Amino acid sequence: MEKILSFLVFIFLSLNLTFATEQESDILCYNKEKLALEIGWGHPSPLETYYQQKNIKYPFQMLHTANYRGHIATWKIENEKFYIIEVAIEEEKHKPQKFKIKSSDKSLSTENEVFADWFSGIIVCQKKKKNWETEYSRYFYIKNGKIQKTVKLTTEDFKRIHNLTDKDTSDLELMNSYSMLYLNQSYISYYFRMYDKETITVNEKKGYITGKNGNSIILEYFDNDHMKWIYNWENFEINGAPNGIWEIEKNKLYLKSINLHTGLEFDGAEKIVINLSDVFRDMEKKNDKILVDWASGIYLITYGEESKNELDFEIFKQTEFTLLRIKNGVIEESRTIPSDFNFKNPPKDTDEILKKLIEDYKQQKTKK
What we know:
alpha+beta; 7 helices; 18 strands; 21% helix
């Protein structure tokens, strides 16, 4: 009971934080009703995750501050499966196929809808009254496009969970709702920390390295499939986004250690140290580090200066970048450029290796 109570405050704080983003909602059609599918820091649009996981170039641009993702998608749940049926950009409405949205199992898709089997996670939807107040919320846990669990919660239900007592733990329906909120909390925290910076040391110089799709290179080992990451939101004992400490030595990329990043504090993550051998059980460690032989592509290292503002938040000022061409963990080419280098229009005297690195870096997210 003590563990339950300790997480209740965290859950409700995170709910308020997530919905405070005030992003325009997607739309979910469910049981003949239209629900507002909430989008926020810890609840990325299921369509955003499609391009991120498959390492495909994102086709949308920000519309305004209330719609950073650049679209409003319409979804439906039918026969316990999750489908995308429309993508709207301002007043224009399009079929999913226009944006090359495909499911792995094509047998469940049609010309007018695509089975969203790439998506695993929590979606939170609200039924709005005419005055835009929330009548109730629905939580859906989805795995590979299939509904695993759904919970409907009213304001009164939230109050009951918030005031949970020992006696209430015998109420199976109430505890089922609590477990969904707990799962949702883990999901929010995971995505909130997905893009935390990862430290790399090169010749005793420290910088930050970015994976090919913007998150940790560790996930590339798992084909960017979050469900293969053993510390994802389903792990109730310990969970968090992977965050590595990296090193380049003798032209090879090594992973020295792993932290799980979790929590919703803006001034830094809660960090949990994970043994390398617990994640990479079949890989040989050399001097307590692992050769990152799964890494191939163009990677970016950012160098800069750290400082704090008047609110004691960390400020990072970029000074230079290094572009690396890596094949199976071995550095084949590298070039370092100042932070004000024009990537879009490189100077005419730019050497050919750097030009090619920049070109390939730009094309890397275009699916072949």
